[in-house]
Amino acid sequence: MIWLDIIDPKYVLFFKELIPLLPGEILITTRSSPNYQETRALLDLYGLPYVCFGGRGESLEEKYHERLKRSQWFLTLFKDQRPDLLVVGASVEAVQSAFALQIPIAYFLDTPSLGLDPKEPNLASLAPTKLAKLSAPLADVIFAPFVVPKSAYQQAGAHNVLTYPFIDPVLWINTEESPPDFRQVCGLKTTRPTILVREEEQAHYVRVRSNLIYESVRALNALDVNIALITRYNPAPLQQAFQGLENVYVLEQKFSALSLYAHSDVMVGGGGTMNLESCYFGLPTISTRSLWLYHDCYLLQHGLMAHASTSLEVLDFVQKILALYGKNAHANRLSIQAQRRKKARAFFIKGKPNFDFFFEAMGNMGSIGAVFGGL
């Protein structure tokens, strides 16, 4: 049996491409809380069966308590049958439980530390994240995207790091599809531009909370546009914060990434994965994140994304992009996005965008090789 603990929305998208290729019995576990249901909603959206236990927690004490509860649950779950392998991304309790039960661990980790802010370089940001320090040393193998240096993992205590030659959204963003228009489902005007806005995540590595997204939405509301907010947590605070702003729509329903990007004009992003997705799709993207990860630095270095520190910078970027589309907005938008997509592809893909690297590594992992021997 192969066990996947999927507790982050990004890894739903990533592992849904791997799961059909895995041999034998598959078990997916996840967690869910009243204020954090995005992962579970995506598992449902893509029809992936799972077992759910535990939540996210709000305070440090609650987060730790939830981890302990899930660890105890894993002990009970695997009392009679232990998995042959754990495939995981960013789940400390799963990694630690698997290590304690001597279950081999294949760990996908893309944030062992933060990157350097090009405006104010601070070497302290290169120190390993707490999540990495708690989990990386326990993994049998860690898989890393090529944009993150191996040294970042080694500083966290990792001992076997294999690099793969692409950036993750390449696996699930199929630019040839013609997805349904989310604007029609939500009752938004399809005759005016649509600005996608993603709130900043409250991830373990986010040290400073930013209000820039809130300030930017209020500034953008003065334009004749749809502002579609993609929530990560409980939508109620966003709905309350922007109550009375007629151009703002908080998306509660989950849509595929393609459905969002194919029918939008600009992305204002506070989230790492969605910024990567939108850049790869070719959607003009400006980041409002309060931190810099290796992926952010890579996108900025190669002119695939802009960055804003103020709401005026966000407003200026959006207005310039909309002016670039001009009067024949739809045709020009498609043309511009196609050009940006072609450029992005060259920087996102540096080798075969598939899981050959994973299966080769599994074949070399002793007893695990027998599980994958027929592939």
TrEMBL record:
Protein name, per record: DUF354 domain-containing protein
Source domain of life: Bacteria
Species annotation: Helicobacter mehlei
